[in-house]
Amino acid sequence: MEVLDPAVKSVWTIKSILRWCILLPVCATVDVTFFFSDNTTFLPGLWTGLLIITCSVWTLIVPKLRYRFWRYELREEDLFAIRGIWNRVQTIVPLRRIQHLDVAQDLIEGNYDVARLVVHTAGTRSTDVVIPGLPYEEAVRLRDTVRDFVAEHMD
After folding, report:
1. Fewer Cβ neighbours under 10 Å: the N or C end of the chain?
2. Rounded CA gap, 64 and 143, in Å?
3. What is the pTM of this model?
4. What percent of the residues of the chain are helix, what percent strand, and what percent coil, each to the nearest 5?
5. Distances, alpha carbon 32 to alpha carbons 22, 43, 47, 65, 124, in Å
6. Closest by alpha carbon to 147, among 100, 77, 94?
7. Below-70 pLDDT ranges, the chain
C-alpha cells in the first residue's frame, strides 16, 4: 500500500494551528471577563491556558498519527483506502462508479507541493472520497490513470 507524502504532516499541523487560533480570542475574552468580574473563585487565564495545552498536544500528536494510519492503493478494479486513528475506516471505490475526479490544492498545500485527489462517485450518501497528502504530480498521475480506466470501460 502507498503512503502519503511526509509533507502532509506539516500541512495538517499548520491547518490545526489556524483552527485553534480561532478559539484563542474567545477563550481570552472569557478569561478577561471573569478576571474583571466579582467571581473570586475563578483562576485568571484558566481557559486560555487549557486551550493552549490542548492545542499544543493536539497539534503535535494528531498529524503524525493521521499520517501513520493513512494508506491507499489503486488496484485493478478499485481504489482502496485505509484511514483513521481511533476509528479505522476502509474504503473501496469501484472504478466503474466514479463520476468525476478533482485534484485540489489549497494555499498551504500548494506551498508544500501536495494535493488531494477527490473522487466523486455515483450514489446519494458519502459520494466523495478524498485521498489527501499526495505529491502534486502523483495526484495528477493517479487522476489520469483512473480517468483512462473509466473511459476505457465505459465503451
Report:
1. C
2. 26
3. 0.84
4. 50, 25, 25
5. 17, 11, 10, 35, 47
6. 100
7. 39-42, 124, 155
